[in-house]
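Subject: design request, 90 residues
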């Protein structure tokens, strides 16, 4: 089976080779219980070619880029759940 499709890392833009250990990530809206507000949920999954074609999925070349994605996602999520109302920072 020949796989000619190319994927690029969401963070650094590196092109995926055939034997790299890459990761997939999705962002979802998640409601932990009924009547609760929706919260962003991040899912990280080992590379799988079928899932890699999902339009929503992010492709990540390794741990460093996964960590970058998580950090960005956390910053975004904090902005969603805790709007910056005060300048209180440690
Ligand atoms: Zn990368």
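Subject: RE: design request

Done. Sequence follows.
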């Amino acid at each position: 089976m020949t796989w000619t499709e190319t994927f690029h890392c969401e963070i650094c833009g590196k092109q995926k080779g055939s034997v790299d250990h890459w990761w997939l990530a999705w962002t979802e809206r998640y409601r932990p219980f009924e009547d609760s507000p929706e919260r962003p949920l991040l899912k990280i999954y080992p590379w799988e070619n079928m899932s890699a074609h999902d339009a929503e999925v992010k492709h990540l070349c390794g741990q460093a880029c996964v960590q970058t994605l998580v950090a960005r996602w956390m910053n975004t999520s904090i902005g969603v759940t805790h709007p910056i109302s005060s300048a209180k920072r440690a």
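The beta strands are 23-30, 39-46, 58-60.
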